[in-house]
Every structure is written in structure tokens, then in C-alpha cells.
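Good morning C.,

I know you're traveling, so I'll keep this short. The sequence:
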Amino acid sequence: MRLNRREGYEGTGPGAITPDGCAVELYSRLPIGDEPDIIATAVPAGAHILELGSGVGRMTHPLLDRGFTVTAVDESAEMLERVRGTRTICSPIEALDLGETFDVVMLASFLVHAGDEEVRRGMLRTCARHVAHGGCVLIQREGADYHADVPRERVDPSGFTIRIVSSEPVGDGVNSVHVEYEFPDANWTQTFLARPLSREQFEEALGEAELRVDRYLTEDGVWVRAVKNPAG
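The C-alpha cells, ready to paste straight into the viewer:
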């Protein structure tokens, strides 16, 4: 089942495919890595986290298990149907305005690299709008060689293969990325638009939303802890 497709985004394979090409069943199968541990070491114990782009809850559920309170936001109702044990909100991230703030706002899954700059700006404004005074925003960036080291593949210990097949420029600093997921019993593909951002470009984008880097949480610079500017 394919929902209304967003231009430049496509997905194939069994089950529901969201407008940005994500397959709900695929994301329900993907394992979680060390992200919850990275998050847990960067924020206070028991913090209330606003998770933007939660999908099926791959990070939501481990964070709940660690004692955090999580409000999960996603634009796909089909994704949110898989989230259990917490509050869920179906909304585009860039349009979200809950009228409340949170200890932590999290924007993972490389969403800060949205191909549409206005969408990215809207997402970062949503982060700034919802983070409490003294709180923080956690952002997941692409690795430095994400678009350069292609094609590449990785065989996961759980038994599936993920291939980044191509990343091709389509104009205005945006690349079209094509990914394949091969499981023993099913295959999926996803094509999406992503805008590479250098560290300087990323920090400039944060500044537009009255945010700034507090520190990079991982040596590769993929996970970032940001805070509001003093005047923000």
C-alpha cells in the first residue's frame, strides 16, 4: 500500500509505504543500535523527551525501558500504530506546535538533512519552540562520508543486508539517495532526497533557529547536543 507519495521520494516492498518512501514493516524489523545509550548519557535521568520522527518506535521503546517519558511524533499514522506504551501525536514535524515544552527534543534519523530547506528550517524551529529553558535538543547528522562512500553495503548480525546503492546530485545542493534492504524473506527499497551539510553549514542552520551546538556527543560528529542561544 502506497500512500500519497512526496515528489522525489519512493519506496517499494511489502506493506504500507509512507509518503517519504519509508516502509512500515521494514522499520519494524530494523534493530536499534547504540543510540539509546548515547541519548541516555547526554540528558538527565527520567527526562521528558519529545521525539520528532519516531516512526514505529525503534528508539521510543528502548528509551521508555530506560525510564524516560517520551512523546512520540510522526506524520505517519501507520508508523504510530506500532508505538506502544506512550503518548503519540500524528503531525508533520515542521507544523507541530503543542504549546508545551520538554526537557529534551530529539530530531534523529538524519531529518536535519531534509532536501527541502524550508522543511529543515521548520523542523529546527519546532525543536527550538518546544525545548524548555535549560533543556537541550539532540540531533543526528549524516556521517562525513555518507554521500561519498557509495556504493557500500553492510551485513547486519541479525541477518539482513543494507546497501547504499547511489547518491546522485539533482540540483540545488540536494542528492537523491537510493537504498536497498535485503532480508531472507522480503526486500525493500527507498529513494529519498537529502541535503549534505558540512559542520559549518549545520551550525549555521542551527543559528537560524536560535540554537547552537553545546557539544558533539560522538567522535564522528553524528550525534549533537544543542541548546538555545541566550537570547533564544
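Safe travels,
E.
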